[in-house]
Amino acid sequence: MTRPYGIHPHIIRMVLGAYQVNTYIVRCPETGDAAIIDPGCRSQCKVLLEALKEKKLTPRCILNTHGHHDHVRGNLTLSERLNIPAFIHPEDKFFFLENGDPDLSGVYHSALDIVRDQVIRVGNLSLQVLHTPGHTPGSVCFYIPGFPGDDQRPVLFTGDTLFVGDAGRTEGPGGSLDQLLSSIKHQIMPLPGTTLVLPGHDYGDTPESTLEQEIQGNIYITDFIL
Question: Which of 166, 180, 168 is nearest to 218 (CA)?
């Protein structure tokens, strides 16, 4: 399923794979350069490639919010087809080592490391890396304080750290509820309330939200943090 520029004039969302991952294409409005966030399905990479071509975008990188297989399945295919690097936090690379899938092994060997507070440039667009462990040790969110030009709304791609009205599970390898709550409290909640929250899955009443709405109504914030 594709939702071109329905949530934001410079963002495409596609729901891909058996786990219905929200895969995003985010573009710089001044240059047409683009980043692909969490390409969730190897077999549906054609859909992503067609969207890039249709919108006349120049892909520059792949960004992974964490290392779970449903969020990285398309990495190797897209990286090789488009000749662009993929980035992931090094603390999540252990997921690839524990899996016998050759594509995931290839993801491990080819992915570049991202670290907290790193700024990734896509054209004139800046994406800040927020390290938000809890769902996994290397979970990150990508924060855009504003787009070049006249659209200064901040945007946060939260992966599986924060959903609409919910948060990521923590019982998997490397998961920690205490870390997850700390990440939400210290890395996400200080951001502007107008920040558009774009999660890794559509598990809420709406596909997206704002940080202000989450602070008021997300049970993980209202019951565990505030």
Answer: 166
Q: CATH number of the domain at 2-222, please?
A: 3.60.15.10
User: Is 189 strand, coil or helix?
Assistant: coil
For residue 120, what are the β-bridge partners?
127
Q: E strand or H helix at 48, and its extent?
A: helix 45-54
**pLDDT at position 1, please?**
47
Q: Which of 81, 43, 76 is nearest to 59 (CA)?
A: 81
Q: What pTM value is reported for the model?
A: 0.95
Closest CA to 141 of 193, 188, 181, 194: 188
pLDDT at 193: 97
pLDDT along the chain (226 residues), means of 10: 66 92 96 96 88 96 94 91 94 76 70 93 97 97 92 94 97 95 98 97 93 97 95
154 φ, ψ (degrees, to nearest 5): -75, 150
Helix, strand, coil percent content, the chain, rounded in steps of 5: 25, 30, 45
Around 51, how many Cα atoms within 13 Å sit in the side-chain half-sphere? Answer: 25
Q: 17: which 2 tokens?
A: 């794979």
**Cα angle: 9, vertex 64, 73; to 5 degrees:** 105
Contact 63, 35 (CB under 8 A): yes
What is the dihedral sign for C-alpha 132, 136, 141, 142? positive
